[in-house]
Amino acid sequence: MVDDTEETNEPTGLNIRESLAENFSAEDEGISVADTAMEPTDYTDDDEPEDEQSDEPVSQAPQAVAPPSDMNKEEREAFLNPTSANAHVLQGYLSRRSLETRQEYEKRRLEVERLQKQTEPLYQTYQKYENDYKRLGVSPQQLLERSVEWDQAMRRNPRETALEYLQTYGITVDDLLDLDLPQQYNQPVEQQQSNYLTRDEAERIAEERIQRMMDEQNQKEVAVSTLNEVQRFMSTKPLFTATDRQTASQLEERMAPIVQALTQQGGRSSQEVLETAYNYVVKGDPVFSDLERKLLAPRDVKAQQQATAKAKAASRSISGSVGSASPNVKVKDIRENLRRRLNGL
């Protein structure tokens, strides 16, 4: 099936008004605003217009609206000529745009949270000395760049970088040699022996690592099992299988905090938790309850028709009814048959 979706790229940058304002401004033409202003008209007492007030409400003419540029061909036709027959097309467009908007918002929110976590420690450190650097006219970005540059230079060439660093603050090596350093700096550096792990410590670390790996594996298995149960549950509910992605996404978001609370309480299986959260949301929201009723109505009618057809078929299989005919009695011989007839049997 060929998708007739037409994708149009909206131009970015200036719009037509800004473009005209740039290219055809009054100042470029040598025309001042005062020259273009209209002079007020002098009215006499006789010519002064009277304000006529009418009790009738002023009706505004309908405005012509172009369809959004991200609509496909079918949606544009429905937008320009809306009818009850193509209302579902516009509903689908609005539902899709709502889902895309919420997804984009969530994406931006997570991005902001990630950047905040990255920059928050740096900014907290800068806040301790913020007033000092503000007096020097050093911004947080400049301070960070300078610190990183000095650190990288020390990694590449520590001797020359150290000398350059001292010269920056007006200090030479001779100045350092003339200083009376504390005793702790004059003591020789002792060679530290390497610390080796004992056998018990190595076994304990290995056991902790193995246990951590097993816990991670168990968590993965539980996550996969939970995901399969959720998918099985969703496959049985028409609000997940017979609706668009936006409706299903809203239902999931409404159920999520309830599922989390019930899971923390414990005492219920995954299916019971999902069923409880589903019923709580659907029955408590008239929009979802109405949608479910509309989706279940055809299925209930079909089930009733099948039950009626089954009952009719069962009634046809019964030959006769009670009292409609004499019972068929089997006899062994003619003598027994005569005796039954004489006794009225």
Characterise the protein shown here:
This protein is mostly helical. Among the domains are: 69-128, no CATH class; 135-178, no CATH class; 205-308, no CATH class. Helices cover 65% and strands 0% of the residues. It contains 15 helices and no strands. The chain has helices at residues 16-23, 33-36, 73-80, 87-128, 130-136, 140-156, 158-168, 173-177, 183-186, 199-235, 238-241, 245-265, 270-284, 286-316, 334-342. α3 (73-80) crosses α4 and α10 (199-235) crosses α13 (270-284).
pLDDT < 50 runs, ≥5 residues:
1-12, 29-34, 189-193
Euclidean distance between termini CA atoms: 77 Å
Mean pLDDT: 76
In terms of DSSP E residues, the strand content is: under 5%
Overall geometry? elongated
The helix/strand series, from N terminus to C terminus, equals HHHHHHHHHHHHHHH
Counting DSSP H or I runs of 4 or more residues, the number of helices is: 15
Number of strand segments: 0
Share in helix: 55-70%
Q: Structural class of the helix and strand makeup?
A: mainly alpha
Radius of gyration, CA atoms, in whole angstroms: 43 Å
Give the biggest beta sheet: none
